[in-house]
Design brief:
Elements (H helix, E strand, L loop, with lengths): L3 H4 L4 H9 L5 H7 L2 E2 L2 E2 H17 L1 H5 L8 H6 L3 H14 L5 E4 L6 H7 L4 E5 L3 H13 L5 E4 L3 H7 L5 E4 L21 H9 L4 E6 L5 H7 L3 E9 L2 E10 L7 E9 L2 E7 L1 H6 L10 E5 L1 H6 L4 H5 L3 E4 L2 E6 L8 E9 L15 E5 L5 H8 L7 E7 L4 E10 L3
Parallel strand pairs: 3-4, 3-6, 4-5, 6-7, 8-10, 16-17
Antiparallel strand pairs: 1-2, 7-9, 8-9, 10-11, 12-14, 12-15, 13-14, 15-18, 17-18
Helix pairs in contact: 3-4, 7-8
Length: 404
């Protein structure tokens, strides 16, 4: 369980101080005094930081009394409640037998907790004993009593154990110098090397990776991938999920998911072969311009999305789409064109010369465009810099539907 030092954080007066001083500047606290009620202020400052970060990322933890937060890096690398809940729902659809699961990289224990809601038993594994004790303490505060804790590394746990209905692994995406890694074989533990041993222990594996990972390169390294999910929240790409089901045949389904709210998900599915064979036509900007959400762009559904919605593309390398008729259910941001190639005099009608600037495959960055035309951010209109097949455009437009 918790070390004596971490237990000291649970004193009522310390917990009251943390709750009442959520917005306190932690550095000022540390500089002003070394201890508070015999507890080092550095420890208290870390809890204030963690609680503030948890407010939106982990609202259940934030609302629950007596929660202890880990170092900032562990909190940053953990899943959010939103993405953990998505994984729970995914497993309800894809794993029928749910007696025993294992989280081989338990960390702060967010995903483990959500798995415990649908599996009879969940094994939590992490070689960091302090992090394990924090997760165990918090799980008890959250009334999760079907989780069992193992202070091992993933390789050791796999070699010692027998069978699970489901295995989850979220390998570290940083090396010893905290440098971000984007190759699957460079993660720790190495899931490419472990997959054969894992498939002897289970029929179902879910691997969470960085959104920076090259999807097609990962598919060349992994066996039996049934589904790849590109998971975004409010149009920010958060995770790639590779679901492995023993003896699944190729090709996998690619799911581009953007979570807008608990009850609203934008979903676009395709297969890489379909994308490769899709035929798309090109045209200059028409009445409406469409910008796909972040998951679709990361998934690489550049032609499939145009084909599904009967849109033309501005050019092969410009991932914007256009049409003369409006498709309101398009999963992304929608614009109505006001004017192509506006000259500087057109901006005179814009109050305070405020306009939002965005670019796709254009030689100038948004900052360079704003400097060139003496523009400021803001207002209701957009200036879109983009390239067509034969020429480049500046498009004056208004948003019909923003990104969620």
């Amino acid at each position: 369980m918790l070390s004596d030092q971490l237990k000291s954080l649970l004193k009522k007066e310390i917990q009251d101080f943390i709750y009442l001083n959520e917005q306190l500047d932690e550095n000022k606290l540390i500089l002003s005094q070394r201890e508070l009620k015999l507890v080092p202020t550095t420890l208290i400052a870390h809890q204030i930081t963690g609680r503030r970060k948890a407010k939106y990322k982990l609202p259940t933890w934030y609302r629950t009394p007596q929660i202890v937060y880990p170092p900032s890096l562990n909190l940053e690398q953990s899943s959010s409640e939103t993405t953990a809940e998505y994984k729970r729902q995914f497993l309800l659809r894809h794993v029928s037998k749910r007696a025993k699961a294992i989280d081989l990289t338990g960390g702060f224990g967010i995903d483990t907790f959500f798995f415990s809601k649908i599996f009879d038993q969940v094994d939590y594994v992490d070689r960091n004993k302090e992090l394990l004790s924090i997760a165990q303490h918090n799980h008890l505060q959250l009334d999760a009593t079907n989780i069992f804790y193992h202070a091992h590394d993933a390789e050791e746990m796999i070699s010692q154990s027998t069978q699970w209905d489901f295995v989850y692994i979220d390998p570290s995406r940083r090396d010893e110098q905290a440098k971000k890694l984007v190759r699957l074989a460079d993660t720790q533990p190495n899931v490419v090397e472990l997959q054969t041993a894992l498939l002897e222990k289970t029929d179902h594996i879910l691997i969470k990776t960085s959104p920076l990972l090259d999807i097609q390169a990962a598919l060349r390294e992994l066996k039996f991938v049934k589904t790849v999910t590109v998971l975004s929240v409010d149009n920010e790409c958060k995770e790639l999920l590779f679901f492995i089901s023993k003896n699944s045949g190729p090709p996998p389904t690619i799911e581009a998911v953007n979570i807008v709210s608990a009850s609203q998900h934008q979903l676009f599915e395709f297969k890489l072969e379909e994308e490769a064979n899709a035929i798309v036509s090109f045209s200059d900007p028409l009445t409406f311009i469409y910008e796909p959400n972040a998951s679709i762009l990361k998934a690489g559904a550049f032609k499939s999305i145009a084909q599904k919605f009967s849109l033309t593309k501005l050019s092969k390398s410009t991932h914007l789409y256009t049409s003369s008729h409006l498709f309101e259910n398009f999963p992304g941001r929608l614009f109505k064109v006001i004017k192509l190639q506006p000259d500087e005099s057109d901006f005179a009608a814009i109050p305070h010369r405020q306009i939002n600037v965005t670019t796709r495959n254009y030689p100038l960055s948004p900052e360079e465009i704003k400097k060139k035309y003496k523009l400021k951010d803001g207002g209701d209109q957009f200036l879109i810099g983009c390239s067509g097949v034969n020429k480049k455009f500046l498009v004056l437009a208004e948003v019909i539907k923003p990104h969620p």
